[in-house]
Amino acid sequence: MTAVPPPTPPFRDPGLPVAKRVDDLLARLTREEKIGFLHQFAPAVERLGVAAFRTGQEALHGVAWMGPATVFPQAVGLGATWNPDLVRRVGEAVSREARAMRARDERVGLNVWSPTVNLLRHPLWGRNEEGYSEDPRLTSAIATAYTRGLRGDHPVYWRTAPVLKHWLAHNNETDRDTSSSSVRPRVLHEYDLRAFRETVEAGAVAGVMPAYNLVNGRPNHVSPYLREQLRTWTADELLVCSDAGAPSNLVDSEHYFDTHEEATAAALRAGVDSFTDHGTDGSKITGRVRTAYERGLLTEADIDTAVRRQLSVRFRLGEFDDHEDPGAFDTPEHRALAQEAAEQAVVLLRNDGVLPLRPDSRIAVVGLLADECKLDWYSGTLIHRSTPLEGLRERFGADRVEFAEGVDRIRLRTSTGAFLYVPEGAAAEEVRGAEGALDPALLAGRTDLPPLTTDSGGTELALVDWGEGVLTLRAPDGGYLSVAEDGYVRASADRPGGWVVQETFRLEPHGSGHLLRHLGTGRHVSVAADGVKVAEADPEIFETVVVERGEEAVTRVAAGADVVLVVAGNDPHINGRETEDRTTLFLPAHQERLLRAARAAHPKTVLALVSAYPYAVEPGSLAALLWTAHGGQAAGTALARVLAGDVSPAGRLPQTWYASDADLPDLLDYDVIGGCQTYLYFEGTPLYPFGHGLSYASFAYGDLTARVTGDAVRVSFTVTNTGRRTADEVAQLYTRAVDPSVPRPRRELLAHRRVTLAPGERTGLAFDVPLSAFAFWDVAHGRWHLDPGPYDLLAGGSSEDIRLRTTVTLAGDPVAPRAVRQHGLDAADFDEQSGTAIVDRTRTTGDAVTPAGDRTGELLYRACDFGTGVTRVTATVAGEGTVEVSLDGTPPLATLTAASRSGPYSYTALTAGFPAEGVHDVRLRLRGALRLAHVGFSG
């Protein structure tokens, strides 16, 4: 007899709806198996033929951490292209490479943790390189394009499943796991949520990752906004993956919960579905979940909900079907796309006519980044590499390009008179990260090379000061001095890198010499009989013997050139990166020295900034100024082609470039409205404005029309190339409320389009702008509101280069007064504030307001309608302090005193006499260590 094969379980039937298949598989899993799925590394369930699964594969601008891959420009560079179609194609290439790499290495995941949609609110944020723009609409346009590329175009199966980072209001590395972003409701809805919302609503997002920080006093990993906002934007199941180590932070650093079981249960109930903690070891998280379940802190339904969301993603990826997507890896098309992206990301900020360079130009290429192709923490390993120097030599000929790096060449003399010496054969031949790693933070330094010693002649070292005294030292063979786990100093690294950089040092004055501190370990360098190492005791006192200053080499090569190109910028692993914010907008002093030397030596000095963020530079004496983010594998070729005029630059700034540190708000001030931040509200004069970028062509704008049609405004205008070469133009459309009822942006991006035009070619552009784009968040009534009245429509080449304008009048209703007699005032729904911070009303939901530090806090609520009259005011407060209530700036009519010491969430209702009628502005003054949740009026 022939055995009858067992029936195919419903979860294996591709003809069934995904929801039914998920339910079937979920019902077959035991509780223990489901609990196992809650860790990032979900184990296999062999009895059901379910494979192991890992959430999380970094892919910000190429597949990262898993060895060689195509490396595209940094995310901020992709943002500078202002080209969603290009970015979609980049996303497609990355997803194809992820599939191809997974086919040969199962460690490569398909649940990709990209893109980052945090807004570039503050240019000193260490992770500026990861975002797209300071503007929420541009960010969502670019992010939507990237997610669509990552998702792929198959009608059923997703090539990869993108997760947006980092939810929410996350722009500081300083105290990032303990600091709280105070985000008022208007900023929350109009700014921080908007970029996430519009990207999620576009339909190619599999989930989000909460950020390390707190928002309004509550950790993002237990944020009620996951439920109240995120999950209302789509009918799809969204997978929320924690950031690495963040679940434990809820107890260990944030002290928000007393036990890990409470914290894990709270995060799961809030909406976290996959816990990234303790590396590949899932036992601690699963143990916490199990104990929380046993204690009644969780139900099995809570666990099922989280597992269902993960399974939904796995089904969409085709895991349980015979779906094959072989992908593609390092193809000619991917290489060409990497170059195209790098070319489109170059922004020309200033040009007095020196660019494009003449074909017969003799070029002096100088600077610390002139012969570098830098990678960042979220890069793959380079397969191909092009530096600015290499690109220019290839384009103009090696005989026409001279080079000076501009490093300071030194020897380090010890107290015995001997010099540090790098033994022969200590070449840095191994490329960091070439083998790939699930967690590259765990990659160890090399110990197979001999450590440094001393001798009478020593070795000449290339010293670079990256700012704030942070130095790298490089041997003649290219190896960076580095320290491995055994503590010895070797010339063993191909570049600075790693989670804790082991290639940076600081010279500290000591007597007549210097101590050399290794920053990765915090220890000083000492010289021992068995080699040079770092140690707690007996630090060596060094004398720095300068062989040549960097500016001397710059002056020498500049003398015979027609033009000097200075390539300056940052190393993405030093002074501004994940875990470390910048402290200033200005270039490090070493690079300023090189720039001054170039300017003094030659009037035709061009500065190319290659960096992950904006700088404040003095452009007045420069013949030209360009900026590009670290452009990936084709960066040098792309820059050379732009300089030569093979490509007309058309990148545009995705964020404001401020002229000085004095223009910046405090890093932790998240109130873009009250703090007058970003191009939306900044009232000063920027160095270069949002959207700025020059071209080798010129463009004329004309024929602007606008008309209201139903629930949208139809705007059209023409753009004509009036120049002599084919070039791209980025046409930008902005709006400004002429007579707003509340503070509104100076101008706000509505739409944009990047177009390619031949000389004399003209094109018409049309945009249908929904009326909702003109609305603001009405804090008085908790909803979006469209003010009636005139709105300017502004078209041009940047937020300040406005060529055309017209005005449309939109219908709407005036903002109604606050019905405070019926509803009172929620404390966080203020119109204006000073000296306050928003905090959590309870651990699970709601906001309260507290004075910031030792300051007196003030809150203003406009147009409060008391009707025919009230006689009492009631304040809901916790803690100790006073609340003064006044009308229209008059002296206080009531003072309420709180004296509770029962904890921050123990609220008391305080009542006092308060006569008022009609419509008035209400002012509250807060003093002391109290939290104000609500103010009510009665009588």
Explained architecture:
The strands form 12 sheets. Strands 12, 15, 16, 19, 20, 21, 22 and 23 form an 8-stranded antiparallel beta sheet that branches. Strands 36, 37, 38, 41, 42, 43, 44 and 45 form an 8-stranded mixed beta sheet that branches. The longest helix is centred in the first third of the chain and has 21 residues, at 84-104. This protein starts with 17 loop residues before the first helix and ends with a strand. Strand 15 and strand 16 (471-474) form a beta hairpin. Helix 1 (18-28) packs across helix 11, helix 8 (246-252) packs across helix 9 and helix 14 runs parallel beside helix 15. 20% of the residues lie in helices and 28% in strands. The chain is α+β, with helices and mostly antiparallel strands and 939 residues long. The model has no long low-confidence stretch (mean pLDDT 96). The radius of gyration is 30 Å and the shape is globular. The protein is built from 18 helices and 45 strands.
Summary, kept brief:
The protein is built from 18 helices and 45 strands.
Q: Strand pairing plus helix content: what structural class?
A: alpha+beta
Query: How would you sum up the major sheet?
Result: 8 strands, antiparallel
Termini separation: 89 Å
Oligomer: single chain
Tally of individual helices: 18
Q: Flag low-confidence runs.
A: none
Provide the β-strand percentage band: 25-35%
Rg over CA atoms, rounded to whole Å, is 30 Å
Percent range for helical residues? 10-25%
Shape: globular
